[in-house]
Design goal:
It is a single chain. With about 180 residues, the protein is α/β, with parallel strands linked by helices. About 20% of the residues lie in helices and about 20% in strands. It has a single domain, classed as Rossmann fold (3-Layer(aba) Sandwich). It has a six-stranded parallel sheet with strand order 3-2-1-4-5-6. Strand 1, helix 1 and strand 2 form a beta-alpha-beta unit. Helix 3 packs parallel to helix 4. It is globular, with a radius of gyration of 15 Å. The relative contact order is 0.20. Bound molecules: pyrazine-2-carboxylic acid and zinc ion (ZN). Pyrazine-2-carboxylic acid (VGL) binds next to helix 3. The site of zinc ion (ZN) has 7 residues, from loops.
Amino acid sequence: MKTALLIVDVQNDFCPGGALGVKDGDKVVPVINKLIEKFDFVISSQDWHPEESVHFKKWPVHCVAGTKGAEFHPDLKSEKIDLKLKKGIDNKDDGYSAFEATNISFTKYLEDNEITTLYVCGLTTDYCVKESALDAVKNGIHTFVITDAIAAVNASPNDGKEALNNMFSKGCVLIESEDIIVI
Ligand code: VGL
Ligand code: ZN
């Protein structure tokens, strides 16, 4: 039984100044960089959309595959990432969850590496972090959400809080980064 860190969508476009920049999106980076050192397995997801997508009926154009906006935040220690998932590639699909990545099968990677626990962090609390954490629970993974290493879109002011309530009620454990001990 092994444990991995899942870093969701810490990309330029979700950080302040980006196409879909969220408040304090960049503040998660130093917290996550410290966490990266604790884990044997570090997995990232990236929103990786085509130029035209049904997704852009709901959202400003962001994280178009291969653009600067889709790159990791420049301070993220991305050289320590073992597996890079890409999602939202299909133009008919939102692809919010890391489990919807199509460049590689996330579930197969977890099985092959006997990973049964995931610590989830990144952007954004009310969309991709939430959907990834809920899918992890559905896949029988022990799922922790790191509350000081996430940031919300908050299209409505309570969306981030409601997302946390939702994740908690479906079996995710909410934890602060300082309390994480990886064995
Ligand atoms: C996300 C909105 C649109 C996210 C992605 O990464 O949470 N949010 N696309
Ligand atoms: Zn997106």
